[in-house]
Amino acid sequence: MRKLQNLFMTLAALCFAVPVFAQGTTPAVNLIPIGAGLGMGLAAGLCGMGQGRAVGSACESLARNPGTRAGIMLFLVLGLAFIESLTLFTLVIVFAKM
């Protein structure tokens, strides 16, 4: 109970301290580069996971039925190009915002 009371007292002090800093002349923080970096990292990581799953599934399907190699490779390359284009679109958006 004592810890909870200390927590609420600290939060109350912080809430009352915020208006004190409202009249400061410090410039606004620019968070666009941080958001762009996080977005690009997230896009690259998730596209990499998607490409890994696509290639893994293609290898598994080729192991089960080697006769369909031409059709599977065509759709694999097409799918990998679409997945990679998502990362490139994110990169274009990052450069447009910055």
Radius of gyration from CA coordinates: 25 Å
Structural class: mainly alpha
Number of helices in the DSSP assignment = 3
Determine the mean pLDDT. Answer: 85
End-to-end CA span: 48 Å
CATH class of the domain at 37-98: Mainly Alpha
CATH topology of the domain at 37-98: F1FO ATP Synthase
Task: Draw up the topology in text.
Layout: H1 2-17, H2 32-64, H3 69-97
Helix pairs in contact: 2-3
Could you characterize the architecture of this molecule?
This protein has helices at 2-17, 32-64, 69-97. Helix 2 packs antiparallel against helix 3 (69-97). It has a domain at 37-98: F1F0 ATP synthase subunit C (F1FO ATP Synthase, Up-down Bundle). It has 98 residues and is mainly α.
